[in-house]
Amino acid sequence: MNEQELLQQEVPQHARRTAARLFAQLKGQRVRLAIVVVSIVCYVALSIWNPMYSAIVVDRLWESLQAAWAAGTPFSITWDHLGAELVQLTAQYLFTWLFYYFQVFLMASVAESLVLSLRTQVARKLHRLPLRFFDQNKAGEILSRVTSDLDKISETLQTGLLKMVVAIGTTIGSLAVMFYYSLPLTAIFLVFMGISMLITRSVARRNLACAAQRQETVGNLTGIVEEYYNGRNVIRAYNHEAESIQQVVEAAERNRIANQKADFLTNCVNPLIRLLTRFSQVFIAIVAGQAMLSGAMTVGVVQAFFQYVGQTAEPLTEASYMINALQSALASAERTFQLLDEEEERPDPAHPAQLDRPRGEVAFRHVRFGYTPDRPLMKDISFTARPGQKIAVVGSTGAGKTTLINLLMRFYEIDGGAITVDGVNTGAMSRGGLRKNFGMVLQDTWLFGGTVAENIAYGKPDATREEIVAAAKAAKADYFIRTMPQGYDTMLDNEAANLSAGQRQLLTIARVFLCDPPILILDEATSSVDTRTEVEIGKAMEQLMRGRTSFVIAHRLSTIRDADTILFMAHGDIIEQGNHRTLLAQGGAYAALYYSQFA
């Protein structure tokens, strides 16, 4: 990715619209924002007034010192003589400090509340997005929008935006007073600051590209490490440790180079800018000294002028970095809003149909479906599953078996035809009302961080311990659970690394036993267990499936010979359907596949 592409990632395409929408998100924080604005105004006003008042106090102090020296009397400070002025100046600096920390504290609260609100909206949005969105987007990109982009918005609001607003007000006011005090001194300062700003702008643009490149290399490195960690056993089995280590080293080296460039550009510019600032102060000191000797400027005014130089130089030189930070934050906000604007699932009906006593009859009537409108996958799918029947779905990889199940569960919406459960169109039901009638055991197990009992009770959180144990016994999981350190109270992480693949699968099967649904979906449910355990689970499955409609996706045809109906799929269509004997007698695609497995 070249520098131009990297810059485009960090620059919003619709900055004004995004900023307005981001501000609209703060409607619940308007009172705090108003207090922040008042604090900023007070802080800026005091920052401009303090040097001016210090000029008055220093001049009076200098005059008193000169008078005492000329009269030969001791110099003293009383309340009426400079004491009140010094106390007032001290109080002004104290209030300046208080207003600064007050606005920083409140702005942090505003920023974190905004990010919390956006994260909540994103989390809810992810639950409303269709499965198609997750198929088309990488998990890392979605996670980046939820984490990195929102963190960048929070950081910029707390530091960049606040610093920018304060810098604008302070710089305008300070320059106005500096012009009032001395036009030549201000001109010298602006010449040096102009040179500093040109240097900073050039470096900041390059630094923005380097920061984007660093983020890209971090993502690549993280992806490689995660991939190799998950596949560590395969890597060792094929003796690819050296190659995998080399690829990690190369990715880490690319990240090191990107970090080095970004850190160098960030750190090298400050000493140069400070050097130019010191040069400007030297020239200003020389000219100001001549002005004091000639009586054109007083000691108090000169020291006040240097205060203005100090509080104006840094914001001017950092302006490019501030702008880049704001642009990057707006780009992050834009990506977040793009996620929030993604097309959602079709809303549930206002008055959804209900299945009070589901029998488990499932029918597909001339169903059409395609992942994209111009490329239909299923053109005319029709079949009926009677209550209590076992329906096997077979075919080669990519034939549409999983897609068929996804349409039944309404993970995808059909393009035509109808799918009914007990005669009720699934489109007329709510998704929750439809899916509570199904129990799924997938080939890829999913367990979450929690106890064994909590994982089994995922579909029925209010289940009693006796019900959980009964479900585990039915799934042949009770024995190995009791051998674990805390039994059913043993904590699992989200990868369940302390369990074998077969044991993880047994827990998901127990989860379905506990839910006791009227319709079952089994996607190679016993593929990860050994033969003996498979036989035992098969017996329990037969008991579970008795009286229930079951959809079984199978690759091993030996497991579905007793199915009431076998659907043989190819290229998204059902090309054969019937029971095992009927399909063998036809001598078609199913027979060819069956005999190829048992030649």
Tags for this model:
599 residues; alpha/beta; 6-stranded mixed sheet; 4-stranded antiparallel sheet; 12 strands
Task: Describe what you observe in this structure.
The chain has helices at 3-9, 15-24, 30-71, 83-128, 131-136, 139-146, 148-181, 183-230, 232-237, 241-294, 299-317, 319-340, 401-408, 431-435, 452-456, 465-474, 478-482, 501-515, 531-545, 580-586, 589-597; strands at 362-369, 378-385, 390-395, 416-421, 424-425, 438-441, 450-451, 491-492, 519-523, 549-553, 565-570, 573-578. By secondary structure, it is an alpha/beta fold. The strands form 3 sheets. It has a 6-stranded mixed β-sheet with strand order 6-9-10-3-11-12, with helices on both faces. A 4-stranded antiparallel β-sheet has the order 2-1-4-5, with no helix packed on it. A two-stranded antiparallel sheet has the order 7-8.
